[in-house]
Fold:
Amino acid sequence: MIEKNFDIYREWKLLKRFLKGMSLQPKISDVQGMLPLNESKGTFVMLVGPEFDCQLPNASMTARLGWCHGFEELGIPYRIISVFDLEKKLPTFPRPFCWLSESDYCYLTPRNIQTLRNLPHFVWVNVWFENDKKYFETYNYPDFSGPYRVKKKVLESEPTFVFTISPEERFYYYEKWLKRGLDLWSLPLAWDKRVYPELPAPDEGFINVTIAFV
Structure:
């Protein structure tokens, strides 16, 4: 008999990482918030999976830190914790509300989902629209949607809202989230002044560029 808290897809993902010699735990170390928890009306909790590495300043890491720094500027302390420590650590924080990425859900157990259901949490979701797999295949794009079994976990956790960095004019790429009754927000990325404290002088070679993608 399989234990109710067992998730074969989760175990498969972890086994793949192990066989590839990849870390099975996020590397968090010294990027925790500085504000004390005991004086706060709430705690912003950034839940991260094993891909998170505080020593690797890629978009995945800096975007998450940007959220943390933003709440700290508002006087709300933050803590970054592993999704694998969710059950143990969340009860120790005063009035936690959680940030997750859809991709982190592949590591969550059914018990984790139940815990999140009882807490405010919001999720950065991937696109999800009619015939999305066929669309990506037709244009030889990567699968930006991701597996349905992970989306099902997001739905089961009943998030307070889900969000994308895309503008509202592109919400048709997220139509299946909306059709399932989720509250979808547009939350574009912002400038993290703690990482980039000064606005650099403009490069003359780019003066006439209206918009650029990196």
The first helix runs from residue 8 to 19. The first strand starts at residue 43 and ends at 48. Residues 8-206 form one domain.
